[in-house]
Amino acid sequence: MLLLMRKRIGSIVIKAFAFLLILGFGAWGIQDMLGYQFGGGGAVAEVNEMRLEPNQFYREVNQEIIRMRPLFGGKLDIQQARKLGLVDMVLNRKLDDMATIVTANNLGIAVSDQLVRAKIKAQPMFKGLAGNFDRDRFNQLLNANGLSEKTYVQKVRAEIANQQLVGSMSAGVVPPKDWIEFIYRAREEKRNTDTIFIADTEFGDIPTPSETQLRTYYDANKSSYMAPEFRTLSYVHLNAHELAKTISIGEEALRKAFDQRIDEFITQEQRNVRQLI
Fold first, then answer.
1. Strand, coil or helix: what is 51?
2. Residue 152 belongs to what domain range?
3. Is 194 a member of any domain?
């Protein structure tokens, strides 16, 4: 069987089958290394129409491991990265980037190729000895970090979209002055203290004070041992408006009171007269 397949490996069908078989085992290996179960479509994650492919995710994780490896003495593998949470950190970062791009597209925020090109050329790390953008240095740094030009351009485009999206929401926002002063005091406040250290051996033998000494000291410092004076007060609060809610007066009583005080509720009739003489 193997001999037959080897003879026919040159055919298009067998080559395609071998490619799919290798790709399947590759994705299986990446899934096992990173510790994530891929969806039915083979993607690590999906945000709207955007997909995070296994190979892309693995490259991002590998770049993070290479970047962090010097901090661990050159000894940091994929299993240690998983335990330290680096894999989860990379995944969350990619999800944030994807969500930003989707939101920017929905809001009509477009990042032109000219803007991306200008940002890349302005990076100091890509400039040569003459101070201009150096294409060879650009390619060398991308290769050293395991990045393709397409991947890096996508990252720069996502960063610009994120800056425009987040910047538009935070632009013009001025915190209240009281908040600024409170935060400033909390961060910049300083206290100066003077301390004196007295060892127990410096005290020696302390004699027990006599009753006369205690009484004399107490009389001189009574205020330190006395609680402030208090008074207890009880009172009744009478409010005519509240009392009126509890009083019910019948119609007959109202009519009688009105008749007795009718002069208070009647205004004398008046006339305005103009006379010509």
1. strand
2. 109-168
3. no
